[in-house]
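Can anyone check this?
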Amino acid sequence: MGELVVHQTRPAEPLAAGWLRRIAGPAISACLFTGPVPPVELRPTTLAGFACKNEQDRRVFLNSRCRFWNPGSVVSLMLHEMAHRLVMEHEKSTGRSFEAHGPEFFLTVMVLYRRVDTALDGTYALVDRLALYDFQDRPPGLQHLERPAWAAEVLGWALQHFESIASSSASAESIPKLAADLWSAHAARKNAQRAEETARQGEVIRLKEQVLQVAGDARIEVGLYRIFGWTGFFASMVFALFAFVV
């Protein structure tokens, strides 16, 4: 793993790069990057930070005024943007496309945060900084759910997996693939369960209709008995049984 490279666009302060490397170095080490760490550029911007898909050197961008923030906020933002970069690289290598703040991104950034919290004894409490913003995009396949329901689904899924990945030796670069595979499997199970539930509901409706039909036939049979006696009653029973079986 290489060290963090920091670029500056004026009017970033000359000392800001060294300050950022100093506070971010331990966090970067904890993330387990095996390849070059995405460079950071400090620049004047109206955004707190961002990452672009077509940056040739994979850099992410932070607001040059971040030197006025507390270190925890800076590290949190930097890793948030690096998580975007990692997911973008997985998209590029697989040809797949994910929501900007979907389940794959959310689990990736959660794992990075947990690794830093563990390595630094919770100095920045990064996991506690996670918010609905970090998984704000509805995943495909959950369009039938309202926001509270699908958000709870994503959050529960991420909580189920992030500790085991964070404590593993998986590289930072491999986390998006793990997240994508886990979410695909989870979504497939949920879709199968939904299909089974739909089939069960359809069967219940069909059986109810049959019961109502039989009840209606029974009323007819009683009426026939009153008119024609036992002969009409048994004849109608045979006819109803034949119709039900067929």
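Reply from J.R.: I decoded it. The chain has a mean pLDDT of 84.
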